[in-house]
TrEMBL record:
Pfam families membership: Nitroreductase
PANTHER family: IODOTYROSINE DEIODINASE 1 (PTHR23026:SF90), NADPH NITROREDUCTASE (PTHR23026)
GO molecular function: oxidoreductase activity
The organism's place on the tree of life at top rank: Bacteria
Ranges for domain Nitroreductase: 7-196
Organism: Saccharopolyspora shandongensis
Alphabetical list of InterPro entries matching this protein: Nitroreductase, Nitroreductase-like, Nitroreductase/BluB
Name of the molecule in the record: Nitroreductase
Residue ranges the record marks as coiled coil: none
């Protein structure tokens, strides 16, 4: 698979089969991803990969919190700036509408939406997950490096025939992840990433993108 095809075919997959992801494949992908560039070569990311009993434990404990109506842990970072301005807010709303329309969920069906969101904490059925942390002393440039790292992993997963879904949603139940992962106190959980083989029966929308001219300016 060439890079264009990996980029084109990557999407946030939210339905996985329970087919296990071979450990050697994950090691191959994460070894290749060590080549991700970072400012000053700091490589500021810290990843924990969970499968088997460890991931099952995270899912079980999170499901218990959800069932108890636990709203989640205090925030360590804002997922989005307050009062998202135009055109970001419109893009966010459009993505949600596309997604829920594909799932057949009506705009006002709060219960169905909540159920769809809750699937995050089961990793959408995925048998593997990566939890990506960063040292809390790092700045926005290093958070950008971490984003490159995650995209590199997602593209390499495509080359291996696997799919993924990056999930800031895991930061909501970060203490439960920490109970299993035991990260050093200086680390902040940015996001999880579900990893596995796509359940081709799961409905999805191909989420649109802004026209090139909205985000790129050529000058010559
Ligand atoms: C850093 C990051 C965090 C995300 N967090 C979540 C999440 O918590 N749950 C989810 O379902 N999707 C999440 N997504 C997926 C985005 O919603 C998705 O990438 C976007 O809507 C574009 O859709 P596409 O990736 O399918 O093209 C996240 C994406 C990124 C890059």
């Amino acid at each position: 698979m060439d890079v264009y095809e990996a980029v084109r075919s990557r999407r946030a997959v939210r339905g996985f089969t329970d087919e296990p992801v071979p450990k050697e494949l994950l090691v191959r992908v994460l070894t290749a991803a060590t080549r991700t560039p970072s400012g000053g070569n700091l490589q500021p990311w810290k990843a924990f990969v969970l499968t088997g009993a460890a991931l099952a434990e995270v899912k079980k404990r999170t499901a218990e919190r959800l069932a108890a109506g636990d709203p989640g842990d205090e925030r360590e970072f804002e997922m989005y700036p307050p009062g998202l301005k135009s055109a970001y807010r419109e893009r966010q709303i459009a993505a949600g509408e596309q997604r829920y329309a594909a799932l057949g969920i009506a705009r006002r069906d709060e219960q169905a939406r909540r159920k769809a969101v809750a699937a995050n904490w089961d990793c959408f059925g995925a048998p593997a997950a990566l939890f990506c942390y960063i040292d809390r002393g790092m700045g926005s440039a290093q958070w950008a490096d971490m984003g490159m790292y995650l995209q590199t992993i997602m593209l390499l997963l495509r080359a291996e025939g696997l799919h993924s879904c990056p999930q800031m949603a895991w930061s909501v139940y970060r203490r439960t992840v920490a109970e299993v992962v035991s990260p050093p106190a200086e680390l902040v959980l940015f996001c999880g990433m579900s990893i596995g083989f796509e359940d081709i029966a799961a409905k999805y929308a191909r989420i649109g993108r802004a026209p090139l001219a909205e985000t790129v300016t050529f000058l010559d």
